[in-house]
Design brief:
Blueprint lengths: L2 E5 L9 E7 L2 E6 L12 H10 L9 E4 L2 E4 L2 H18 L5 E5 L10 H8 L4 E4 L5 H11 L15 E5 L3 H4 L4 H9 L3 E6 L11 E4 L5 H14 L5 H7 E2 L1 H9 L3 H8 L3 H13 L3 E5 L9 H14 L9 E3 L22 E4 L3 H6 L7 E5 L3 H4 L3 H10 L2 E6 L4 H4 L3 E4 L8 E3 L6 E5 L12 H11 L11 H16 L3 H4 L4 E2 L20 E2 L3 H7 L20 E4 L17 E5 L1 H6 L7 E5 L4 E8 L7 E3 L31 E7 L4
Parallel strand pairs: 6-15, 7-14, 8-9, 8-12, 9-10, 11-21, 12-13, 15-16, 16-17, 22-26, 23-25
Antiparallel strand pairs: 1-2, 2-3, 4-5, 4-17, 18-19, 19-20, 22-27, 24-25, 24-27
Helix pairs in contact: 4-12, 7-9, 7-10, 7-11, 7-12
Length: 657
C-alpha cells in the first residue's frame, strides 16, 4: 500500500491534509492522523474531490461548441484557437477587451499563474472586491491595520467562545474538537445566529438575532459594558484610538432599542454583556454570513469594538477570529509588479451591469476557478451578458453551467493529478500536494496551460519555468533561505508556518496610522462616510411592504458554493408561524419571490428558523439556475463585497392551474 501526501484545495477554514491511496476502486482519501488540524478525518467535500477524478461527469478532452453540441479538439487545435482569439482581441480593442473571471475554487498557489498571464498581456478586464468576505476583511484592516487571528489551539484557553454567525459543525468540522476541549476545561460556548444551527446543540446558550442586525447587537452590548463600567480601561487608554467616538455611537443603542431592532430581549443582552466582560478571555469566531449585508463592514467593526473595549485583543484565549494575512509577503508572489500592467476593474457585486456598458466591450472571456453564471448575483443578467460576449472560454474539471454556456472548454487536472502548494487565509499550515496519478484523458494542469499559452504569445520572459516543481521552488525561495523549508521537507508532511504566532497582536504592534487600534479614524470616515448606518431598520426599507421577509442563502452541509451541488431543485426552510400565514405545510411547493426574480421550492418546516426569515440554501440548481437568480447585486459599505443576504422576499403557495 502506497500512501501519497496531498492536501485539500477547497476554500474552507479547515485546510485538511490528505493521505491518498490508489486502489482498484478509485482513490481512497483519509485525513493525516499526524496533522494537528485534520487529525485523521476529512469531510464529505474532501471525499467528493476524490470521487470527481473518475466521475463520468469528468471533462477529459478540449471541447468546442458546434451549434447545440460539442466537437472534440486536440490540445494543439485548442491552443491555436485560443491564441488566435487573444491576438485578435488585442489587435481589435486592446487587452481590456479580454475579461478574466476568477475566484477561490482552488487554493493552490500555482493557480495565480492565470493572473500572471493576463498581467503579462498588459492587464485585462477583471473583477475587484469580493464575492464572499471583503466587507469583514476591510473592516479589520481599518481597525487593527491587518487581519490576524489567534491559533485554533488557542481557543482551548478561552473562558467564553462566541460563535457569531458561524456554524462549525457544518462548515468547519475540524474546529469542533477544540471547542469541545475548551468546554471540558470550563469554557462556555455561545451561539448568535438567526438560525438555531447545528453547533447550538453543544452550546451553553443560543441568541436568535434578526438577520442583518448583528452590528446593532454588538453596539448594544458595548452600551451596557460602558454604562456599567465593565470595560478594560487600562487597555483602552494604552492601545485604542477613537474610543470617545465609539462610546458616543454605542450610547445610541440602549438595550430597549436593541431589543426592538434585533429581537434579543433586554435580559439576554444584559446577560451576554456580563459574560463578555466578566468571563474573560473571550474568543469571537465570526462567520461570513453576518457581513453579507450592505452594512457588513460596519457590523464587523462593531464586533471588533466590543472585543476591544472588553480587553479581548492580544491575549491568549481571546480575539476576533475572521481570517489571517500571515502568509502575505512570506513567499515569492507569482503576480507581476503593479507597474507592469494596467487592468480595468469593476466591483464583483455589480460586475454584470458594468460589463454590459463597458467601452471597449468585452470580446473574449476566460473563466478559471469559478462558475459565475451560478455564483454571481444577478445571474439572469449574467446570462444576458454571456450571450453578448462573442467568445467564452472555461477551464474546469466538469461541465459547469458557465462551461455549458461557453464556446471553448479546457479540461484541467484535479489536485491529485498535479503538484501544488496549498496555503489558505485560515490555516497556519503549508502543504505540498504531491502528484498521485496521471490526469484522466487529456486533462492538463491549469498552471501549465498558461505557461504554454505564454510561450505561444511570446511571453516567455514572464514565464521562465517550464515545470510545476520549478515554479513551486521559486515560491518557496524565501522560506528555504530563512528556515530551510523545501519541497522535500514538505513531502514528509505539512508544516506549521514558522512565522505565525499563537496569539495575534500579542506585541500590540497595530499596523494603523496611529499605531493603535482605531475604533474611529479619518481613513474609516473617508471610506464609510458619516451617514452609513450600522443596520437598515425594516421600517425604513422601501421594499418592506411588498417583500416582508428576510432571505438567507447559506451553505449546505455537503456542497461549497456551486461545487458538488445536487441538481434536484430547491428547498426552503420556514418557521411554522410563517408557514401558517400562507397555509403552507411540510412538503408543499411554494413560490419564493424577490424584487429580482422567483423560483419554486419544496417547503420544510423548522422551529430553528427565525419567524421572519426564509432560508434557501445554495448548492442546488434547476434548469441551470441557482439561488442567486433571486439576488440583486449590492456593494457592501466597505470592501466592495457582495451583499447576498441583503434581500427581502415574499412567499406564496404554489397552485397548479
Amino acid at each position: 500500500m502506497t500512501l501519497v501526501r496531498s492536501a485539500c484545495p477547497l476554500n474552507c477554514p479547515d485546510g485538511c491534509a490528505f493521505l491518498v491511496e490508489m486502489t482498484k476502486n478509485g482513490l481512497r482519501v483519509k485525513g493525516d492522523p499526524l496533522n494537528s488540524i485534520t487529525k485523521g478525518f476529512v469531510c464529505s467535500k474532501g471525499q467528493a474531490l476524490a470521487k470527481r477524478v473518475f466521475s463520468p461527469d469528468r471533462l477529459r478532452y478540449p471541447l468546442l461548441r458546434q451549434g447545440q453540441g460539442w466537437q472534440r479538439l486536440s490540445w494543439n487545435q485548442a491552443y491555436d484557437l485560443l491564441t488566435e482569439k487573444i491576438k485578435e482581441t488585442l489587435s481589435d480593442v486592446g487587452p481590456w477587451g479580454i475579461f478574466h473571471h476568477y475566484d477561490y475554487g482552488n487554493n493552490g498557489v500555482l493557480r495565480e499563474l492565470d493572473q500572471r498571464f493576463f498581467q503579462a498581456l498588459g492587464g485585462v478586464t477583471e473583477p475587484r472586491g469580493s464575492m464572499c468576505w471583503g466587507a469583514g476583511y476591510r473592516a479589520q484592516e481599518l481597525d487593527f491595520g491587518g487581519v490576524f487571528s489567534n491559533s485554533r489551539e488557542d481557543l482551548e484557553d478561552a473562558r467564553t467562545i462566541v460563535l457569531w454567525g458561524r456554524d462549525p459543525a457544518v462548515t468547519n468540522v475540524h474546529l469542533i474538537p477544540h471547542l469541545l476541549a475548551a468546554k471540558k476545561r470550563g469554557a462556555r460556548v455561545l451561539v448568535i445566529n438567526p438560525i438555531r444551527v447545528k453547533s447550538a446543540e453543544f452550546a451553553d446558550a443560543f441568541y436568535q438575532v434578526k438577520p442583518g442586525t448583528d452590528g446593532a447587537l454588538a453596539l448594544g452590548l458595548s452600551h451596557i459594558i460602558l454604562r456599567e463600567r465593565w470595560q478594560d480601561t487600562r487597555f483602552i487608554q494604552d492601545y485604542v484610538h477613537g474610543f470617545e467616538e465609539f462610546a458616543r455611537r454605542s450610547k445610541e443603542f440602549s438595550p430597549e432599542k436593541v431589543e426592538a431592532i434585533t429581537g434579543v430581549s433586554v435580559k439576554q443582552i444584559t446577560e451576554l454583556a456580563r459574560s463578555l466582560s466578566h468571563s474573560r478571555p473571550v474568543s469571537f469566531i465570526l462567520g461570513y454570513g453576518l457581513q453579507r449585508y450592505v452594512c457588513g463592514g460596519n457590523t464587523v467593526r462593531a464586533i471588533d469594538g466590543l472585543a476591544v473595549i472588553s480587553g479581548n485583543i492580544g491575549r491568549a484565549g481571546a480575539g476576533v477570529h475572521y481570517a489571517h494575512q500571515y502568509h502575505r509577503g512570506k513567499m515569492n508572489s507569482l503576480l507581476l509588479p503593479p507597474e507592469r500592467y494596467q487592468s480595468r476593474t469593476y466591483p464583483h457585486p455589480i460586475l454584470a451591469e458594468e460589463l454590459l456598458k463597458a467601452n471597449p466591450p468585452v470580446q473574449l472571456a476566460v473563466v478559471t476557478r469559478s462558475n459565475p453564471l451560478v455564483q454571481q448575483p444577478n445571474t439572469l443578467l449574467w446570462r444576458e451578458l454571456w450571450r453578448k460576449i462573442p467568445f467564452k472560454v472555461v477551464l474546469d474539471t466538469v461541465l459547469t453551467e458557465t462551461a455549458r454556456q461557453s464556446d471553448l472548454v479546457l479540461p484541467v487536472a484535479t489536485i491529485f493529478e498535479e503538484e501544488e502548494l496549498v496555503r489558505t487565509s485560515w490555516s497556519p499550515l503549508i502543504h505540498y500536494a504531491q502528484k498521485v496519478l496521471e490526469p484522466q484523458g487529456e486533462a492538463q494542469a491549469e498552471p501549465m496551460i498558461f505557461t504554454e499559452l505564454a510561450k505561444r504569445l511570446g511571453l516567455e520572459k514572464d514565464f521562465p519555468y517550464a515545470a510545476a516543481r520549478e515554479w513551486l521552488e521559486f515560491v518557496l525561495g524565501p522560506l528555504t533561505e530563512a528556515y530551510g523549508t523545501t519541497l522535500d521537507t514538505l513531502a514528509q508532511g505539512p508544516i506549521y508556518a514558522p512565522y505565525i504566532p499563537k496569539v495575534a497582536w500579542e506585541d500590540k504592534d497595530f499596523r494603523t496610522p496611529s499605531g493603535k487600534i482605531e475604533l474611529s479614524s479619518e481613513l474609516a470616515r473617508e471610506e464609510l462616510g458619516e451617514a452609513v448606518a450600522t443596520y437598515i431598520p425594516a421600517e425604513d426599507r422601501e421594499d418592506k411592504a411588498e417583500f416582508p421577509w428576510h432571505l438567507i442563502t447559506p451553505h449546505p452541509g455537503n456542497a461549497l458554493h456551486s461545487q458538488f451541488h445536487q441538481d434536484d431543485g430547491f428547498t426552503m426552510f420556514l418557521h411554522p408561524e410563517l408557514a401558517d400565514k400562507y397555509r403552507l405545510n411540510h412538503g408543499d411547493r411554494a413560490i419564493i419571490e424577490t424584487v429580482y426574480g422567483q423560483l419554486a421550492a419544496s417547503v420544510v418546516l423548522s422551529e430553528d428558523i427565525h419567524p421572519e426569515t426564509v432560508v434557501l440554501p445554495e448548492g442546488t440548481t434547476a434548469e441551470g439556475l441557482g439561488v442567486n437568480q433571486l439576488i440583486l447585486g449590492k456593494c457592501s459599505d466597505i470592501g466592495e463585497s457582495t451583499s447576498y443576504y441583503d434581500m427581502r422576499c415574499q412567499i406564496r403557495k404554489w397552485c397548479l392551474d
